[in-house]
From TrEMBL:
Native source organism of the sequence: Paenibacillus aurantiacus
InterPro entries hit by this protein: DHS-like_NAD/FAD-binding_dom (IPR029035), NAD-dep_sirtuin_deacylases (IPR050134), Sirtuin (IPR003000), Sirtuin_cat_small_dom_sf (IPR026591), Sirtuin_class_U (IPR028628), Ssirtuin_cat_dom (IPR026590)
Classification of source organism: Bacteria, Bacillati, Bacillota, Bacilli, Bacillales
Name this polypeptide is given: NAD-dependent protein deacetylase
HAMAP family: Sirtuin_ClassU (MF_01968)
Subcellular localization, as worded in the UniProt entry: Cytoplasm
Active site per the UniProt annotation: H121 (proton acceptor)
Cofactor(s) annotated in UniProt: Zn(2+)
Amino acid sequence: MELDQLMARVAASRNIVFFGGAGVSTESDIPDFRSATGLYQTGSDGAYPPEVMLSRSFFRTYPEAFFEFYRTRMLYPDAKPNAAHVALAELERQGRLTAVITQNIDGLHQQAGSKRVLELHGSVLRNYCLGCGRKYNLDYIVNHAEIVPTCGVCGEIVRPDVVLYEESLDMNVLIEAADCIAAADLLIVGGTSLTVNPAAGLVADYEGDGLVLINRTATPYDSRANFVIREPIGQVMRALVPSG
């Protein structure tokens, strides 16, 4: 059985790297992007598609519309880690997993206890003033009296520390992620369609014999994988944690 073989590989590994996307957090009731109930399918209920409303130019031109959409469709302050997050934190605690690379911005990996988390697209938990650089937490954005949050020191707009469309990923994070993947003895990819670059391109550079894909639907990399599993990611990751 494929899962039994994978469990044996995990038990013998000491350099597992996990690469995850939006599907990792759907079991925490955070919608993904491209499924039938995802953000891109349900739309923004307005004149602009989500890709436009989450762009740098839209943020600059229509900050009120940006933050109305961002608050209602991108922030889930009450979300809790699910079985996948917890399992990954436990694998790290056991000394088997060396890094989590995530495309998510929800901070649930850290909340579950993971220490080394490379956030390719930033985090909603971090926010900063465009004027003076002062840092603010998520509560400041959620509870701000005005639609557009402004700095309590200089009055300039406070924006989320997330990568918007038309913006580049942090090159230092990207390089560190590439190094982790190159060194992995087991690369577990979960909850992502692997269609968004440059993040998805990181998987293409993996040359080992331990590529694991856990996703409900097919990905462009299925034919290259050593293991392809279509079961719910929380269930699979929980089963992969060695006991004792």
